[in-house]
Amino acid sequence: MASSVVCQYPSKSQLQDENFEDEMVVTSAADDDGKECNGAPKDTSPVIPGWYVDVSWPGEAHIYKMEKIIFQGKSEFQELLVFESSRHGKVAILDGDIQLTENDEFAYQEMLTHLALCSIPNPKKVLLVGGGDGGILREISRHSSVEHIDICEIDKMVIDVYKKFFPDIAVGYEDPRVHVHIRDGIAFIKYVPEGTYDVIILDAFQPMGPIAEVLADNCFLESVAKALRPGGVLSAPADSLWLKNFVVADTIAKCKNIFKGSVNYAWTTVPTYASGVIGFMLCSTEGPQVNFKHPINPLNPEQNGVAKGPPKFYNSEIHAAAFCLPSFVDKVVDSK
């Protein structure tokens, strides 16, 4: 199958079939005149019928065999693709960027949530910006001290699709403490009264789309710090330590200046994401001291909230270990 457009999505003919052929065929790119070229243009991915090609990092790709297209739709904000893979369960792709797979979503969701909520005593009010899949809501529900959970998700389509096709993840919406706001989270947080939340979780990073660039903006982070109570905490994804231009020292310096409390970088493994590793930035505001490296609010093994079972990845030992950095990263973090 030759094509003048090199893309990651399956063709219309492929979408009409529930299943795909086992053979893997790499199609060639074409130039403006429709003639075949010797290779794919820079920063594009090959079309491989029946396979999804994730090119989150330049120079490499992860390839997933698609057994069946489950959903493909476009809202006024973005395009969402869901397919059944041969090894990773259902996979969600948003605007060409992989969001999660059923195989390992819990590693990211649990760590992003509990690194923050287990580091302070009795968190009561939590804000989630993004996280429309509901997995972080599922994890927050494990904390019985929490009385109120706000989630800001700009796209109702995302919520509806996850509820329909990922019920074990979207189960978080069943928590009666959850209040859903279908609006721009960045605009929402700017008008939050000072000191409203104990914890704010930002669920967006570069491979998740353009919104991640805005979440790194100083003015927005200042709004986040203002919305937190003294000693309140922020949890957000950060660069993988394997990123070629790893600049976490600059991020830490910026966050220390804005939040005035503790700032730490943690990491964990999530095979789905580029390099198999994702980082986390944990920040606390000025006030009661927060030591992220030693959780003081451990999960109650008898309290699972609306989740269907206990955590699959997170525990107190993993929490502490997440802040142990390889030597080459430790040098970068300590450089400022």
From TrEMBL:
This is PABS domain-containing protein. CDD domains: AdoMet_MTases. GO terms for molecular function: spermidine synthase activity. SUPFAM superfamilies: S-adenosyl-L-methionine-dependent methyltransferases (SSF53335). It holds the Pfam family Spermine_synth. The active site is at D203. Belongs to the spermidine/spermine synthase family. Keywords: Polyamine biosynthesis, Transferase. It comes from the Eukaryota. One of its GO terms (biological process) is spermidine biosynthetic process. The keyword Nucleotide-binding does not apply. It comes from Sphenostylis stenocarpa. Residues 49-285 form the PABS domain. Gene3D superfamilies: Spermidine synthase, tetramerisation domain, Vaccinia Virus protein VP39. GO terms for cellular component: cytosol. The keyword DNA repair does not apply.
